[in-house]
Model the fold of this input.
Amino acid sequence: MQLPAVYYPNNPVLPASGSSTFLWSIAADQTDPANNYYDNYDLLMSNNINLSGPDNLNFQFKHVLSQVEVNLIAGTGFVAADLVGATVTLPGYRLSGTANLQSATVTMGNGVATVTPRTITDGVQYMALVMPQPKPAGTDIISVELAAYPGVPFIGRLTTVLDFEPGKRTIINVTLEKTAIRLSATLAPWVNGQTGNIIIQ
Done:
């Protein structure tokens, strides 16, 4: 027996009666611990819920948003200490869209914003959530401003198309040099939610 889809977190954003879709938005500022940084905006969905027995409901949640990991690397003319206190932002990302319970997917909306990612390690690693979206060649995808050079950001621009895929982590390695910024990007699996078991009584 297959049952309707579910999602987590189950917050006040609920589908209208009779609808399988609802709007979902991610905050641009993902540095606030009051919102668990970006965790409160993570969206896990399951549309493969089945009764494995008369009393057991099994489901597998999956991440439907896209995670971004930024790693700063000191290149020619810099040392690691120069990167501490850097201001990292992600310009022009889509942060809202429509979630579909039946397909367990999200579709990006039209608006864009500049994301301030969560600092994992100052000057080293930053993380953010965004809607799944493509970025065409020639797009600025990251800005890094060093504390020693206020008002003079390093801008990272794509030379090829980069897709931020649902349920995947896009790892962007940013090498800062005195005269340039070098980018490399890879996709890594994002761990799905654990299988849950509910006893129905």
Notes: The CA atoms of residues 84 and 123 lie 4 Å apart. Helices lie at 80-83.
